[in-house]
Automatic annotation (TrEMBL):
Signal peptide stretch: 1-24
Name of this chain's protein: Outer membrane autotransporter barrel
PROSITE patterns, sorted: PROKAR_LIPOPROTEIN
Molecular-function annotations in GO: carbohydrate binding
Region feature Disordered, mapped onto this chain: 25-100
Keyword tags: Signal
Residue ranges with Basic and acidic residues bias: 50-59
Length: 488
C-alpha cells in the first residue's frame, strides 16, 4: 500500500501530463512543435490534455451545479440552513460512475454502506455537516472527510480514486483518411464516446493517411465510439493558422479488438480566434496555455499549445463548428510546485483568463511533530482561497491513509471511530497538501460534480479525449513538500 499510494503521492500528485508527458495515457505519437502533448513546458507539442466535464455526470441524480461549483439546493439563509435536513448523496468516481461498498458516516451518525448505485441517505442532519468516507487501496483503509457541507445532495469522489488503476477495457482503432496530410499540415484524431467517456488521441504528420488509435474505457464492454479528425495548417514557427479538413466516423469497440474506420475529410467551418491572457504567480516560469474544442459531452479535442512569455494576450485559431465551445488550460511551474488553471464554456471571439493561483503551503504541523491526534490543527497559507485537501499517508502497512477536504485554511484529521476503526497509535505518516478547485468557492463545491479529487484525477488524462476538465478551476501540485509526523 505505501509503495502504491506514495508513488501516487509523489508522482501523480506532482505530475501534470502537460509538463512531462509522464502521466499521459494517450497513444504513441511523438510530439512536435505544434502538437499539444509536451515533453516540457513551452514546447508546442501534442497535448495530453482533457478538459471540462459534461454538464451532468452520466447517471447523476443529484441537483445541477451552479456556476461557482456550489449545489443549487444549498441554503444561503442562516436560519434555514440551521434546520435539520435529509441528506441523500452518492459516492462516485471521477466520471460519475457509482462506487458500491463504500462506508459513509454523515455528521457522526452510524456508518452505512453504499449500494450498487453508490447512494446513501441520512436524516436529521443539521448543516453545516461533515461526511466521512471509508474506502480502500489494496488492503489499506482510506478515510476521507469533507467538511462544512450544506447541500442535501452531495456527490463525493474519495481520495482513493487517485490510486492509479489500469483502464477496464482497452483496444485499438485502425483508421484511414480519404486524403493524406499535406506538407505544412498536421492532423489530429481523437475518439469520442457516444454515450460514455472513451479516451484516445493521436497525431498524423505530412504524408500520413493512416493512423492507429489506442483507446481505453471503463464501462460497457462494447460501446459505440466516434472518431473525429481535424486537419490544420501551420506557419514557419509551427503555429496553427487555419483548418483544411474535418471528418468523423462511428465505430463499435470491443476489448482487445482493432476495428477499421475510413474517415472522409470535408471542408471545415470557418476559423475563429480565442484570445488568452495568463498572469503567472511570482516566481513561476515556463508559462503556457492549451486550447480545446468541446464536441458534445464526451470529447474535449486538444488544439494547440502556445508559450506565454509576457502579459500580452495570445490568440488561438479555433474551428467554428456548430455547437462547439472552447476551453483554455494554462500552466506554470516553480521549483517546488506545478500550477494549473482553466476556463471553460468559451465561445469563439472570447477572451480567456484562466487563473493561476498563488500556491498554498502547509505550515503546520512542523516536520517531526509527535503526538498528533484528531485534535491537532493542520494549517496552510492559502492566498487565493482555493479548496484544500490535507492528507497523511502511512509509512507502514495496515495503517489508514487519512485525508480531509475543506475550503478553510485549517483542518483536523478525521475521527475514524464512527467507521468501525481505531485511530492509529504511534504511527508514522507523511503529510501533504493538494489544492484543487475554484478559488473562493463554497464548501459545497467539494461535493458537487467531481470535487477536488475527481478534478485532479481527470487532469492526468488531459489530451486523450474524454469529457475533459470540470468547470472553471485551478490546481497546484506540490512536489516533495511533505512533513513527517507521528501520532500519539
Amino acid at each position: 500500500m505505501r509503495t502504491r499510494f506514495l508513488l501516487m503521492g509523489t508522482s501523480a500528485f506532482a505530475c501534470l501530463a502537460l509538463l512531462t508527458g509522464a502521466c499521459a495515457t494517450s497513444s504513441d505519437e511523438e510530439p512536435t512543435r505544434s502538437d499539444t502533448g509536451t515533453s516540457k513546458p513551452g514546447s508546442q507539442a501534442d497535448a495530453d490534455t482533457n478538459e471540462e466535464r459534461p454538464e451532468r455526470d452520466a447517471g447523476d441524480a443529484s441537483a445541477p451545479e451552479t456556476t461557482d461549483g456550489s449545489d443549487s439546493d444549498s441554503g444561503t439563509d442562516a436560519d434555514a440552513s440551521a434546520q435539520p435536513i435529509t441528506v441523500t448523496g452518492r459516492v462516485v468516481d471521477q466520471e460519475g460512475d457509482p462506487l458500491s461498498d463504500i462506508g459513509v458516516s454523515v455528521a457522526g451518525q452510524a456508518m452505512v454502506t453504499t449500494g450498487t448505485d453508490g447512494t446513501f441517505t441520512f436524516s436529521n442532519v443539521t448543516p453545516p455537516y461533515e461526511v466521512r468516507l471509508k474506502t480502500n487501496v489494496g488492503t489499506t483503509p482510506v478515510v476521507h472527510a469533507f467538511t462544512g457541507l450544506r447541500t442535501a445532495t452531495p456527490q463525493l469522489v474519495p481520495i482513493s480514486k487517485l490510486d492509479a488503476a489500469p483502464p477496464q477495457f482497452q483496444g485499438t482503432i485502425q483508421g484511414t483518411l480519404s486524403t493524406p496530410v499535406s506538407t505544412g499540415e498536421l492532423a489530429r484524431a481523437c475518439v469520442e464516446g457516444v454515450d460514455r467517456p472513451i479516451y484516445g488521441c493521436t497525431v498524423l504528420y505530412p504524408g500520413d493517411d493512416t493512423f492507429t488509435l489506442a483507446v481505453n474505457w471503463t464501462t460497457a464492454p462494447s460501446p459505440l465510439a466516434r472518431v473525429r479528425v481535424l486537419r490544420f495548417t501551420l506557419d514557419a514557427q509551427g503555429v496553427t493558422t487555419g483548418f483544411t479538413g474535418e471528418g468523423s466516423k462511428d465505430v463499435s469497440l470491443s476489448p482487445n479488438a482493432a476495428p477499421k474506420v475510413n474517415v472522409a475529410l470535408v471542408a471545415p467551418p470557418a476559423s475563429g480566434t480565442l484570445t488568452t491572457t495568463v498572469t503567472p504567480p511570482a516566481g513561476a516560469t515556463g508559462t503556457a496555455a492549451i486550447a480545446f474544442v468541446k464536441f458534445g459531452p464526451f470529447l474535449s479535442f486538444p488544439l494547440e499549445q502556445v508559450v506565454i512569455d509576457s502579459p500580452t494576450p495570445k490568440s488561438f485559431v479555433v474551428p467554428g463548428s456548430t455547437g462547439a465551445t472552447f476551453s483554455v488550460f494554462a500552466l506554470a511551474a516553480t521549483a517546488t510546485q506545478q500550477i494549473a488553471g482553466w476556463e471553460t464554456g468559451l465561445a469563439a471571439g472570447g477572451n480567456a483568463k484562466p487563473k493561476l493561483v498563488q500556491p498554498p503551503r502547509l505550515v503546520a504541523p512542523a516536520e517531526g511533530t509527535q503526538g498528533v491526534t484528531i485534535s491537532t490543527t493542520f494549517d496552510a497559507t492559502n492566498p487565493d482561497g482555493i479548496p484544500l485537501t490535507f492528507f497523511c499517508v502511512p509509512t507502514q502497512e495496515g495503517i489508514p491513509l487519512l485525508a480531509v477536504s475543506t475550503v478553510e485554511s485549517s483542518a483536523t484529521l478525521p475521527d475514524v471511530a464512527g467507521l468501525g476503526m481505531t485511530f492509529p497509535v504511534k504511527a508514522a505518516f507523511q503529510c501533504g497538501l493538494l489544492p484543487s478547485g475554484t478559488p473562493g468557492a463554497t464548501a459545497d463545491s467539494l461535493a458537487t460534480g467531481a470535487g477536488p479529487i475527481g478534478s485532479y484525477a481527470r487532469l492526468t488524462t488531459v489530451g486523450t479525449g474524454g469529457p475533459g476538465l470540470d468547470p472553471t478551476g485551478a490546481l497546484v501540485t506540490i512536489l516533495d513538500e511533505y512533513v513527517s509526523v507521528t501520532t500519539q
